[in-house]
Design brief:
alpha/beta
Length: 301
Amino acid sequence: MELGMIGLGRMGGPMAQRLIRGGHRVAGFARHSEAVKQLEEINVLPATSFEELVSSLKPPRIIWLMIPAGTPVDENIAALLPLLEPDDVIIDGGNSNYKDTQRRAQMLKSSRIHYVDTGTSGGIWGLQNGYSIMVGGDEPVVARLRPIFETLAPAADKGWGHVGPSGAGHFTKMVHNGIEYGMMQAYGEGFAIMRHKTEFNLDLHQVAEIWRDGSVVQSWLLDLTAAALAKNPDLDGIAPYVSDSGEGRWTVAEAIDLNVAAPVITLALLQRLQSRDQESFSNKLLSALRNQFGGHEMKKE
């Protein structure tokens, strides 16, 4: 099959390479000459405008977006829409909010443009290992795109699936990322406990390697933990500041809306927020209150 890709960065570039290796023809959009050269190096057919990208594809066209969630997705759709024809497909492979996805799918129906959402996991390792892909959209359209998903997945019959109508793919990926928050937090806390048990002088990389085989806590995240500790055992030079890209917040908000208790995911999100508070005014106030009611000593800066 052939498709055009917009957003060939950290995730999009490796995905394009995996598709090309699988025998698909991929055209990509890039504005700058240096980026065009990089596309050519990975055998992506470069286009310097949306018009050029769309015209290079045979109808019905497939346009895959791998761009940041929110306004950029709407802006790209608005720019593409006048160039597309009925039965063309736009795939959103980023981490869009599923409610935005539902809105966009409904909006595009009047133009008879199909909108498919693909929650995509695999990170920078997807080129070698394949991607986990959760697909939302109309069944006939998803069936038409099946060869693409089979190529991107770890195997044709593993790691991907049509999970429901428009929005279902991004909803499932949102929850996936919420679970990821909790798992990462648990690993972080567990290894911190072991690091503070100084009398045993544990080799944390060794422990991670032991757990990787036969343990009930083995996972890809543990594999990555072992790799990180092998490279930098004390994590020197890394600030204790953890960002988030939104999916954890959306998961917590959805849990509240659905009256579902999700304390682990919620606390993992709050820990990330706390990591960014350099001043920690709340902790200063706690110390001041202990001093006020009990005369407890306050540690000075």
